[in-house]
Structure formats: C-alpha cells, structure tokens
Amino acid sequence: MPHAPRLEDALLTRREALCRGGIGLGALALGNLLADTGRLMAAAPAPAPASGRANARGLNPLAARPPQFPGRAKRVIHLFMNGGPSQVDTFDPKPALSRYAGKALPATLPTERKTGAGFGSPFSFGKYGQSGIEVSELFAKTAEHIDDICVIRSMHADVPNHEPSLLLMNCGEARTARPSVGSWVLYGLGTENQNLPGFVVMCPRGYPISETQNWQSAFLPGIYQGTYIDSQHTEIEKLIENIKNRQLSRPEQRAQLDLLQTLNQDHLARRQREAELEARIQSFELAFRMQSEASDAFDVRQEPESIRALYGEGVQARQTLIARRLLERGVRYVQLWHGQGQPWDAHDDIEANHRKLAGQCDQAIAALLVDLKQRGMLDDTLVIWGGEFGRTPTVELPTPGANQGKMNGRDHNHYGFTMWLAGGGVKGGHVHGATDEFGFQAVENPVHVHDLHATILHLLGFNHETFTYRYAGRDFRLTDVHGKVVEEILS
Amino acid sequence: MRTPGSWLRTGFSLATAVVVLGTALAIGAEGLPPAAAKEDSFPPEAVEFFETRVRPVLAESCVKCHGEKKQSSELRLDSRQAVLAGGANGPALVPGKPDESLLIQAIRQTHDEIRMPPKGKLADEALDALAQWVKMGVPWSEETRLPPTAEARDASSRSHWSLQPVRAVSPPPVQGAAWVATTVDAFVLGRLEQEGLKPSPRADRRTLIRRATFDLTGLPPTPEEVEAFVVDPAPDAFARLVDRLLASPRYGERWGRYWLDVARYADTKGYLVRGERRYPYSYTYRDYVIRSFNDDLPYDRFLTEQIAADQLDLGDDRRSLAALGFLTIGRRDNGDVNEMIDDRIDVVGRGLLGLTISCARCHDHKFDPIPTEDYYSLYGVFASSVEPEVLPLIATAGNDETAAGRDFQAELHKREQARDDLVAKLKTEFRADLRARIATYLRAASDLNFSTSGARDTKLDDRARADKLHPGRLRGLMIRWTERLEAARTAPDPVFGPWVALAALPASEFASSAAALVGQWSEPGAPINPEIAHALAAEPVATFADVVSRYGALLSEAEKRWHERLEQDPGARALDDAGWELLRRVLHAEAGPIETAPDASPRLFDRKERESIQALDAKIDELQVTHAGALPRAMVLNDRPQPVEPQVFVRGNPARRGATVPRQFLEALAEPGRRPFAHGSGRLELAQAITRPDNPLTARVMVNRIWLNHFGAGLVDTPSDFGLRSEPPTHPELLDYLADAFVRGGWSQKVLHRLIMLSSTYQQQSENRAENLARDPQNRLLWKYNRRRLDFEAMRDALLAVAGRLDGAMGGRSVLLVATPLATRRTVYGFIDRQNLDSLFRTFDFASPNTSSPRRHVTTVPQQALFLLNNPFVIEQARALADRTASESSSAGPEARIRRIYALLFGRAPDARELALGIAFTDRPARGDTRISAWEEYAQALLLTNEFAFVD
C-alpha cells in the first residue's frame, strides 16, 4: 500500500518555499509537492492510483519522474501515416514484384477485399547514405538521413481492418478500451513541462478513424489522455482550450490572480496547510504561465526563417515544427497524424495518392531529423514513423460500393509492413527483418506490434512485463501477455 | 473402459460412431490419458536418469513459469500427470516420440511459434537429456506433486472474508462513550482507542450545513438556510436538516449520479462506422435512477428492476422498465455481441457484487473462486436476452395528442415507410433475379456444395463473380434451399424428394443407384412430380451435378411458362398443369426457398445495399433522438423464446467451444445445491440470487459505496473489487454492522444516510492534527472528516447556483453542456458522449463511461485552472453573481455587496481584512484592455477560491 509517511516534512519544506518566494513563486514549491506523486510509479508492479487512497486524492500526477531503469529515450514523436502507407512503394523495395506485374503471384493471402495480380511499384528506388539502404523516391528527402534511421521491414499486425489495427497500434488491444501508448508513457514518466500538456496529438481538419480512442487513457486517470489539437488552425485559442481570456488584459488577470491567491493563502493558513489546497493554489500559477508559454510553443513565427524554410510550407510542415517546439519544451509524447479520416488508404490511384501525401510530409520529416540532431535532441528523442498496417503487393480488384473500380490501388495488409524508428537508442542505418519476395508477409525476424510496444517501453526505461496498472482486479500491461523487446535494433 | 472400437462393433451407425469417437478423444485430451497412472512401474535406472538429468533442468528452467505459482499457457511441468495432460496448446509430450513432442520442439526451437525457454536456448546436453527422457516413455518419480484440486483451491479462497456471511455484530465497548452518537461511532472509536488516537471535535454549524448540503444534494446551502440552521436551538437541528435534504429532489440528482458512474451511463453507443451513435432513450434510465433514489426505492427492488424489470408485475406505471438500461446502456462497438455480453457481466459483477467476473472469461479466475464455467453460465443468461425491435413506451400521461406528438408519429411513419419500401424493393429484386437466373444460381450453389462460411466467404464471392451473380442472393438461396431440403427429408415431397434421395447416394455408385431410383419414380402412380421424373429419366444422370442442372432447367422452364401465361391472362393465379404448377410454386410460393425471411439477414444484401438500408435506419434513429414529440421509451431486454444453452469458449475464443454449462448463479455465492435457472433467460432468478438477504456481497458492496461517497474513502478501498486481491476493510465489524442494518432496515438508503450522518464520526472537524497525522497520515481510522474538493458536477452546479442561474428542471433528454448558449441545467443532465467525451469532463476527473467506474480519480492539473480562469461559462456565472448581488444589495454600498457574495459562496460573513481587500479591488481602474467590470472580476476570483472549491 503506498503511503506518504513523511507528508508533514514535505509540507514544511513547501511552506518554507512559499514563504520565501511569495505567492508568485510556484515552481519551487511545486517541485517538492510533486515529489510525493512518485508513488504513482515506484516499483513494479506499480501501485494503482485507483486503489491508493493517497493517490486517488492526489496531487499533480503529471510531475516528471524517473523510469524503472535509465532509458535511452526521454520523449517520443510518433508520425502516424493513417490509412496505411504501402511498404513496397516506400521503404521495402521488391524488384520481383515488377516482374510479376499483371501476373498472379505464386501465393497470395486474404485481406479485407479481393486483390488480384502482382502490382509493381510505380516509384523508383535508390540507395542512400553509407548504409546504402534503398528508399523510394517518395521519401527521397527523409532518405538522406537513412543512416539515422532503423527500418523495420517485418512488422505485422492481426487483422486487415482499420479500426482494430489502429487500436492495436495505439493501445495494444484491438477490441476493448485500453490506454494508449502515450497515456502509458505519460503515466510512467510524467512530463517535463507543467505549462504544456504532456501528451499532445495533432491531426489537421478533424479526427482520424476511431477518433479519440486512439489516444484514450481508458482506465488510467483522464489527465493521461492525449490532448487533441486540430492543427489546421493557427490561432492559439483554437489550438488549446481556455488558453486565452477574452475579457481581461494580462496585467489585470495577474491582479485578479493575486487577489485569489491572497484569499487562498489566508484560507490555507486557517487550515493547517493541507497539501491538496496548496496543489490547487499552484495549479493557478501554472495555468497563468501556461497561457504565455503555450502560446509561444505553438507560434512557429518565432522560428528563424531558415528553420521555417527547412520544414517547408503547409500544414504538415507547421505541425511538425510545432511538434519539435513542444518536444524541446519538455512535452513527453507527441503524435502527429497525417489528416482527418484515413488519407493513406489508397484502394485506388495509389500512385497519385502516395505521391501527394509523401510530398506533403517528406521534407518536414527530413527537417525534423536534422533539426533534432542539430539541437542534440535526436539521441534521446524516439521518432516513430508508420501506419496501422501496410498494403498488398497485389492490385485491389473492383468491388461495388467499396472502391472506384480503377484497378490501380492496393488493399490493406497486416501480414507484413514497414515502420521506422530513429534516435532514442535505436541503430541508425539499419534494416531489421524482411518480408517475402513480394512484400506480402513478414518472414524474417517478424516484429509484431506488441514487440514494437515492448521495445518502445524498453527504450524509455520500462520493462513492459512489470510496468502495470491494476484495474478491475487485474494488473494491466500495454503488451497484455505478449511482446518481446527487439534487441537487435537497440544501439 | 470401453474403447471407441467397441462402440463400432455394437452396431452404431457410422455417423454416431464418429461423434462418440470425437467426444472420447476430447475427454482424453482434457482429462488424463490412461498411461498416466503407471508411473511407479519405471525401472530404477530410468528414474535415476530422470532425477539426475531431467528434473534439474525442469526445476531450473521451466517450473518457474510452469509450476505451482504460475501456469503459463496453462501448462505445468511439475508432475508427470500434468506434463502429459499438457496445456493450452495440447499435450506437451508424446511418450516415446521426442520429435513429435511439443515440448521438445519448443526447446529445440524448431516449432513455428513456441520457443522455450524465453530467455534463450538450453544447453545441448539438456536438450539431449530431455529428448532421451521422452524416448524412455517419460519416467518420473513422484512425491506425487499433483496440483491442488479445484475443490481445494476453492476451499482456500472461499474462506476469504467477503464471501463469509455478514455477521450481526455488536459494537465494542469504548471508553469515550459520550462521543458515541450512533452505533457507527462505537466501531470507529473502538479502533481509534486501540491505536491510542483521539477523534476530532465536532465541526461548527456553518461547516456542518455546508458539508451536509453538498454531500446530499451536490449544491451549496443558501444564506438563509445557513442562518436558520446556525440559530436553531433545537437539539435535533442537524437531524432535521438531514431529513430536509434527503427529502429534496436534488438528493436523487446527486446520489443517482454516483450510481450512474457504476452503471457506466452515457448517451452514445461508442464507436460506430455509420449510423446514429446517440441512444434516443438513454435518458429514461438516468431519470429512473434519480427517481428511485428520491423515492428511496429499496435497494433489493432497485437491483431487481435493473436486471429483470420486464419480468415483474409493474401494474399500470411502466416507468420502471427503464431500469433495464443498466444492462443495455453500455458500449456497443459496432455490435460485437460477445463484447456486449461481457460488458453486461462486468457491470453486474463489479457493480453489484464487487467481483471481477470478467477475469474468468478466458480461464478460471486467477485469485477468486470463479471458474470460467460460471462466466459462461452468466453469458448464457445475457445471450438469452434480446432488445426488442421497438422499445416499449413508458409515458404515464400521453402527449401523443399534442401537435409535437402527432408530428413525430407522422414523420416517424414516413421514415419507417421509406426504409420498409427500400427493403421491399431490394427483396423484390432479390426474387426477380433468382427467378430469372435460377439455373445459373443453382449451378453455382451446387459447386459450392450449398455451404457458406459466413458473411465474408471469399470462395462464394469468387464463384458469384465468375457468373456475374449477386453474392448475397447466392448466399440467401443456399441457406433457404438447404432449409427446404431439410423439410423434404422428413416428409414425402414430390418436388424435392428425388433431390434428397439422389443427394444421399455415394459418388462411387451414383450412376447405377440413380438409374434404379429414377426407374421407380417413372412408374405410374409414383408420388413424384411427373415433370421431374420425366426430366431425370430422359437421359441417364451420371453425377449429382446433372441432377442439379435438370432441376435448374425445369425451374427455368416453369418460369418461362408462367410468363407466357401471364401475358395471355394477367390475372392468372396458377398454371393449369399440376406438375408445372408445383414447380412454379418453388419460385413463387410464399415461404418458398427463394423468399427472403421476414427478418432478412443483412448478409443477403451487398455492401452498397446494406449501407443504403443503414442510412435510412439512421434517419429513423435520428428522429427519435431529436424530435420534441418522441415519447420516452425504456431500453429493455426481453427473453428469447428459446434460451441459449451456453458453451464455454475455450480461452475466451468463440471459435473453440467447450463444455455446455447451465445458466445459473455463481458457485461461490450460490446456496448449497445450486440449481440451474429454470425460467427463460434466468435474469429474474439472477436478480433474486443477487438480492437474497444472505448474499454476503451485495449489501456490503453498496454500504461501502455509500460510505465512500460520504467520506471520500471507503471502508474497503477497492469499491468494485472485494475479491482476494483487495485489501481487507479498515473496519470489518463496522462494514458488517452497516450491511446488516441496511438489509434489516428494508434496504433503505436513506436510513443508512441518517445512520452515518448523525454520527459523531461524520460531524468531526476536518483539520489536520499533527499527532494523528504522524500516526495515520491517510486518515484511514477516521480521526477527522476528510476535506473534499467538489467534483465536476458539484463544481459546475455550485457555480450556477450561487450565480442564481441554476435551472432546476428535472429529467428529459440530455443537454449539450458545451454548446452555446451555455446550458444552465444541472450537470447530471449533461450529454455524455462515450466515444469522444468532451475534454471538460475529462479535465475534471469525470468517470470514464467505457466501463463501470468504481470511484473518481482526483487530480489537480492546470487545465482545470485554465477553465476556471478563462472559460466563458465561468465568466458568465461571475457576471451573473456580480449583477445579482448588485440588485440584492443595491442601496447598501460595496460592503453589503461583498457580504452578500460571502454569504452566497461560503455561508459566512467576511472579516475586516476580506472586506478591505474586496473594497480595494473593486474600487480601482482596470489595467489594459479589460472588458468586464471590477465587480465581475472580483466575483470570478471568489468563485475560484479554495474555500469555494473545497468542503471542510
């Protein structure tokens, strides 16, 4: 049972800090205050706040705290190509497929819809970097940094449908409500910057398929859920709720806050200094600072021209640059989605679709890698790229009511697809695993989504088998009863 | 034992023998192979080999995960019997055959999926030893390490405190008897004295009325209520206050909401790809709950109605049918039936019994005495219950005579008509196509052997595509045709009789046997349709496919003749020739094999067709969700005409069916001599079993929830898990005392509230005291009252209340809290979107509506402060508060206005310093571009104070 036997001591420390610093000086006091919430994590299995009385009445549970063991990565950015990009058109070249273009492959696998003959990639591949890893023209700019990238060509999932695959990729479970990876990480590590949300999700123009379930906290406390931001907007009020007061000038609001805190201090003094009261006092100071800090974080105009040029134009560039600004400020987990719905889901016209979408994000992704590196952040930032699955090497056949009947697209494929990782303790210039001759199925060193999750947690300093949360009588894990750390890709 | 062969010899038919053999094998795999009994017959050198070469390897590398403590994949490797019995992946060993033994393949790492041990391959020496051991026939020397039997396991877990009967406990003797106001106090004080702690003094009246009012109604007391209570000289002033609050309709809105957390109440179904996500009538369940709390409906009745209201005699007032929303209001997730049933089992298990029954979905519960069979017993109860197509009306006074009601009915009829018309049109097309191309369809169906693997049958789709047939129609034809043949097997049938007889012939002797049969049918007077007899006899049939094509040709011909007939006489009702007429009827008779069933399965339509039906369905739903004239309906369940006999899903996998189990109550809680449920689904019997006065859990779980909501902490810290892994109660005797009092007081919650609130324990101050804080920092022993922050509902409602803007209307459809103009209804009437719960709710720790929620988390994050500082809702209330106090104290100057604000918000007068601060703040120019008055700003600051947000 988690206890806080030294509560009294902690209170005195905080009291002193408050006295010395006056009410404006919240941060120092908060640091002490939040130390208490280390108990959220502690040993394995983690005590459950749901049953821990002190936690249930707890303080700031977003305070930064150490993992189980020193991790290589301190923060994560997940570039989610929702809809499922085709591996054979991006990072998994299959020359044999061109030879089988228009012909039946020796073996095909059932996917969501009917597919027919082999369908060679319309894109050309080239070798990049010292490692000479082949990448298609779609991601030519990203490919220039291939020596920082670890390409996993042997990913596999469970079913060829969007919703369960999205939930599997994000929450480790396809059917029932489980916390997302970002929620687990925020629960485990807290966040470094209390003035910003710890887990930020950006998707322009609306939600992806499965909506907010993709970043749900499920049975973890609601504050661990991802904060969704519609990145098509540029005004800060539309990006973060309640970030701006329309009635009060900032100095006036400060005056109001000073009155509030004076009254709160009097109240506190009459009530034996209770930690919860102090925590709430400090939360107002945090919120006040958050208004300016968050506005700054989302304001890419503050970047030098050279940096903005590096990322390029458009909403992908802007949200990627915002993401870097957030990571730089200590946000723990950022997830970027390509767009509302399932943009990469090219059942038809895959050539035009993939060319357009890659064209929108390739430069920004390359810029992100350069930018993180030049700031010394790539070493401890884990970059994840991929979709919820890949696509078939065979062409999708026309199905009434299901596609446009053009015979130039690919169906979903969960048997084998590519994701890549960079930074944060993974090997650069490395290819792990392989699909078969045509790119249909992972055959060499297959990496299941659960294995990827185990590896992500490992890189962050958690053993996925002992990083648990007790709920409804069970100790839940991100990886449930599955998952194996992919040791081969660790640097 | 009789071997399967002896069954064969005793003359069973082949088909029966196969079934028997299957059963015998299944038993062999799950039970013990006979060889297992012979372990003492191994020669000493074999045992020696086992002891020196094998047991150390098993002990070192295997039994940690496959032994007494853990049974990964349900496999144990610590007894010969267990090894041979195997685990989830079947027997681990085949004695004598190492290469075929799963365990050997796994440790050699030659198996496709299973590679053991997980940490790395064993040394070659160990691999060889284990292979040799298997070859030797798996010798073992036993200290007979059999796993404890299920009974033994149950016996140990059955002694768990929460499964023991509730005892009628008498309170312990205490020294400070003067402090004891109700029996509750004796138990609390007894514990405190044991620990050498002293309780806290009684809180003052202002504190008490604020505490009690928020506690029972979720709202602050008015200044007038406070003053009246403060000056009330009667000794029973507090008791009368509690009675007044319990009688307020605001009580049900507060305490009903606690129950809605348990019931995972939401107004939407969760994620749906298409269709209406909102539940049109979820609010009727919410209103039922609020009403039941206000009426102090006895808890046993409350539960019974929520499980089986449809099976109770409700008289004329049918509103209680809405109680069944407890079961039906959960997440729907695109209609996955097994998930839906699991949700219902879970809400009953954790919500009512404090048992995590869902843990037994894939295997026996790992800690609690709940075998997986019990899960499927309950599964059968819910699988035997369905939601009717049309939900019952529960309005007491009809408003269908109002204009809105009539308009709704008319519009509903229109939309239903549109949907029915489309379905009828699709069915017409369905039949017309089958009639026109019956020969082609039959040929395709025959190629597929008249069998389909379900909605996603790629073989069927391929076959349909080859002949440009409609896959849904092909599937429908196969299903109906097969049913028709089934009928022909049991009764003489001149049309389908030959089909059935010929289909039964073995392929090898088809031609000759068929010729003989056809010969018989061609004889005059044979009870066979002459056209069929003739067609079959015209040319010899060599294979059954020939038979199908003759039928196809005949039916096509019948259809052609019918069209010709209709051309001559559009009013014709039959063909003149009796033989052809019979064939025509195959294609045209009602309930014939090409008629779709009335509840046509969506599988009979293609994707586009299904989507167009769904779109019209969504319009019907949408009308019910939004139209003002829609009368309230109850989200009921009814029993299926034929209850489901549930089968265990092995490891939770519906494709792996295990033993059939009866629908019945949990073994751990059932009376001795548990009997299967006998009436319909068994829901009523389930409710009766749960609410039996001697059920050890039901009352304990509920009184603990009530205690939790009064004190912010339960006597049991895991309110929805009273299982073996839960912590024991802090005050076990008190818990039993309350549970016993609850049941004996007729399951009245209001009686329990009084018992608790009139105690000295409840009326203590909430101040910290250093000497106690050091000993019991979490106040588990209740040496003070816990200061509590207002939860989301109380916070929002209190803001509205003190601003004078709270809309007291009760019941009805949920309202969007975040839409402008901002709603002023109580928060309990706010619309809850299960899928995309508004961040406002989440920010303030609202219960996740995905599953039953045992308790709220309490977090303090800056997003809460941002809402309070900047959200228009808060600023609106500040403005209203400023305006209100201006008019209520207009002539008396700023001081009176400040006094009024303090009275409204805190139920007390400001002191001199507070007055001075207020006057100074409101009497100064604003800085910068500020658009609200200083009084509004001041009012907002006070609404944000800790004094407002916390209850002492």
Structural class, judged by helices and strands of chain B?
A: mainly alpha
Shape of chain B: globular
In terms of DSSP E residues, the strand content of chain B is: under 5%
Shape of chain A: globular
Largest sheet of chain B: 2 strands, antiparallel
Chain pair sharing the greatest interface: A-B, 90 and 99 residues
Helix content percent band of chain A: 25-40%
> What structural class is derived from the secondary structure elements of chain A?
alpha/beta
Termini Cα gap of chain A: 38 Å
Mean model confidence by pLDDT of chain A:
86
Spatial order of the strands in the main sheet of chain B?
A: 1-2
Oligomer: heterodimer
Query: Care to count the β-strands of chain A?
Result: 18
Uncertain segments of chain B are 1-39, 143-149
Based on CA atoms alone, the radius of gyration of chain A comes out at: 24 Å
* Total of DSSP H or I helical runs spanning 4+ residues of chain A: 14
User: Any idea what the radius of gyration of chain B is?
Assistant: 37 Å
Mean pLDDT of chain B: 88
Main pleated-sheet profile of chain A: 9 strands, mixed
Q: Catalogue the unreliable spans of chain A.
A: 1-58
Describe this structure in words.
The complex is a heterodimer of chains A (about 500) and B (about 950). Chain A is about 35% helix and about 15% strand. In chain A, strands 1, 5, 6, 7, 8, 9, 12, 13 and 16 form a 9-stranded mixed β-sheet that branches. Chain A has a 3-stranded antiparallel β-sheet with strand order 2-10-11, with no helix packed on it. In chain A, helix 1 runs antiparallel to helix 2, helix 2 (about 25-35) crosses helix 10 and helix 12 packs parallel to helix 13. By secondary structure, chain A is α/β, with parallel strands linked by helices. With about 950 residues, chain B is mainly alpha-helical. Chain B is built from 40 helices and 6 strands. In chain B, the strands form 3 sheets. Chain B has a two-stranded antiparallel ribbon with strand order 1-2. In chain B, strands 3-4 form a two-stranded antiparallel ribbon. In chain B, strand 3 (about 645-650) and strand 4 (about 655-660) form a beta hairpin. Chain B is globular. The chains are: A alpha/beta (about 500), B mainly alpha (about 950). At the A-B interface, helix 3, helix 9 and helix 10 of A face helix 16, helix 20, helix 27, helix 32 and helix 34 of B.
